[in-house]
């Protein structure tokens, strides 16, 4: 267990010596402010009329209230998180191959499973910190806009939906690590993320999103127009199986494949 903590500490040092935390933090910072801008447009019709096309887009978001705003944040973390979370985990795993440090890493007196698990935990922790940051900034922006219908029940339900969507999206990042390990770099996982994101939209429109893991977080957020946030049991099983497959397959690849 001590070796695992040391490995996580090392992974965090490598992460924060890069520009990845800053890039992902600034990128996610756009979510609450863009959402707040749309709410501001909806809340001020006179200003919206002068914007023309932008005001039309804002109408799609619903009304200017806490329920619509928190739903927008949940949708953004569900869709945008597939790319940002995937980018984080692809860097954590892919950089070892791109920087040619994989041989040095595997020469350490640590089991390969410990190394992989430390990388996953580092990625998960940072992704959840980013999600919490988005939520806190989002709540602050919502209070600054003085959005209506901000009852305790509505805000609490919105936070629960956001937390659920963020957690499910983070869990879906494990297959990205497997692709990064097989592809020995960044390009393969980036292509995989774009492919799954596009396919998730197509499958959801076709009506089978509940059975495609990368569509499930967006459906849970209400992106399909369904305000219910309860994930069906079969959907949760499929998503957890996909996450477990990514985790275990990555561990097996690092243990059994030739990394030279």
TrEMBL record:
Pfam families found in the cross-reference section: ABC2_membrane_4 (PF12730)
Protein keywords: Membrane, Transmembrane, Transmembrane helix
Record field: transmembrane: 20-42, 72-94, 115-142, 154-180, 192-214, 234-254
Record has Membrane as a keyword: yes
Protein's name according to its UniProt entry: ABC transporter permease
Taxonomic lineage from the root: Bacteria, Bacillati, Bacillota, Bacilli, Bacillales
